[in-house]
Every structure is written in structure tokens, then in C-alpha cells.
Give the backbone structure.
Amino acid sequence: MENDFSKIQQKSYLRCSTIWGEDVEGYFYAIDEENNQIILENESISFSSSSPILEALYKPAKLGEHSLRFLSCSAIKGFMVLRSSSEIETKERLRFERELPYVYDAPDDEALKRKEKTAIQTIRERQNHIKPGISEEIQSLFNHFCNMYPDCHWEGDSMIIMGIRIEPPYQPESCKGEPEVTLERIRKNLKQKLRLPS
């Protein structure tokens, strides 16, 4: 059964569950009938995923940031209106109007296409962060570094983080490289992530 978004009020707050096990919450922005997708305005706290692969593809926004999220209707298993537009309290509505004033304007098709193109390009670039055949724990560890440092990639089975090589079994003593200050920072971060004693 196909989801029917046609009767949803703009600015209603939805939770959509996808076929990939992801829950996305956000304010209903628009329906893109031509591409069979909906557009949600969501915040950093509204992303929930049980998959390290999805975490690798979608870098979470920083606290307080908002982003447009394009969801294919065919990828949505189900949705729930958490609060209709009319149910949103006055305080939240005022915050919404102040932070997202453009939501009341008619959707700008060209701006949406540019945003979609940028989002697709970002996802394609982040696909390189996924290492086939690696355990979920190791992929999660790599995702953690990707969200902290701009220069991260795989080289064989080794993680390269800011020029520092982390080889299997991905322990602090497996880290090699220079400069020493970066090496120590990454070792310390790895210890914290693995919850090892200092």
C-alpha cells in the first residue's frame, strides 16, 4: 500500500520509517510529485539509524542545524504525524518562523534541485567511507573519525585519518604516522571510543 502524503498539512511534524531501518523526523516541507519524494526540514537530533552504513552516508548536522531531507516515497515503509501544523504550540511556531522563514514561501524548484544535486554528490563521496566486508563495530569506529576529521579514507584494511594509519586490529598501538601531535590525538580519541583505560 502506497503512503498518501497529499492530505498532510505543510509544517506538520512527521516520523517516517524507511526500508533501510532508518527513522527520520522533521517538518513536512513539500511533495515533489515529479520525482515521487517528500521533503522534510529536519534537525540534527531527528536522525536515528541502527546501521553504520547509513551513518557513513548521512553525516549528522551539528546541534541546532537544520537540513532539507529528500525521501523517496517508495523507500518509506510508513509514517506517523506526530503533531499536525495546527497542534504545534505557539512558542514552537514562533521559533519555527524565526529559524525557517522560507518555509512559508512557495518551494523554489531551482533551489531544491541544487540542494538535491549537492546532497546526492555528498552521498556519493561518502560512499567511499564504506568498507565492504568489515564488521559493524569497525565501520562505526571509522564513521566516528569521519565525523571528527575532514581527511579520512580506507587504504586496504587500514584507516587513514589525517595522514595517520590505523591498522587491524584497530587499537591505539596500531596507529602509525606523523606529526606526533596528530598521532597522539588520534590514539587518545581511539582509546576513548574503545573505552580503554588511559
Summary: The radius of gyration is 20 Å. The chain has two domains: 13-128, 131-194. The mean pLDDT is 82.
